[in-house]
Write a structure and sequence with these properties.
Blueprint: H1 2-17, H2 20-53, H3 59-69, H4 74-85, H5 100-124, H6 129-136, H7 141-151, H8 153-169, H9 172-178, H10 188-197, H11 201-232
Helix pairs in contact: 1-11, 2-5, 2-8, 3-5, 4-5, 4-9, 5-8, 5-9, 6-7, 8-11, 10-11
Amino acid sequence: MTDLAEATRHAFELLISGDADLWRIIAISFEVSGAAILIATPPAILTAFLLAYGRFPGRRLLISLFSTLLSVPAVVVGLTLYLLLSNAGPLGDWRLLFTQKAMILGQIVLAFPILVAMGHAALQSVDKRAWETARTLGASPARAFWTLLRESRFGLLAALLAAYGRIIAEVGASMMLGGNILGYTRNIPTAIALETSKGEFAQGIALGAILLLLAFTLNGLLHHVQGRGMARS
């Protein structure tokens, strides 16, 4: 019990003192996950729109596929991309393995199905007459699309928060694709896994506190957004 109390005290000392290694790990997590969510969101929302309002062969199959991909473990995504990006893989010439770009790619793959599935649900909840009315009144497809985004903004924001929460806390894909290199690809989850395996709990507790704070913040924002959406409807 004394060791745990000492490790906790040391953890908060690391956070307050501005330990360079600790805050670099935190910065890498937010940089990588922020880049991944920014890249994944536009094509994912466009895909969600096509699935909600398009009519084409295989549409229902694609909807089922994205719903199924929600439950794919991060380590499976990491293994698949590792095999593709390794020297013996078909994408080995890209030289991406054990880089931040590989981590971003892995997190994009993890975030994309969440954004599509939840975005599709949000767009479908909007009265379809909104699109038809906008087009009838002479709005361009782009302007009518923007109208739909505004009408479904609470659901889309919930999808964004859910996807971000998933990728910033995952460890499997980041460990396999980034290699857990200090100062370059070591992020919060991989650092926690490494430090606790060595019996060094102070840094793990400090980073865990950051993730816990982030989880509470995202959860609070999600409930706030969902509450506003329900009040609006």
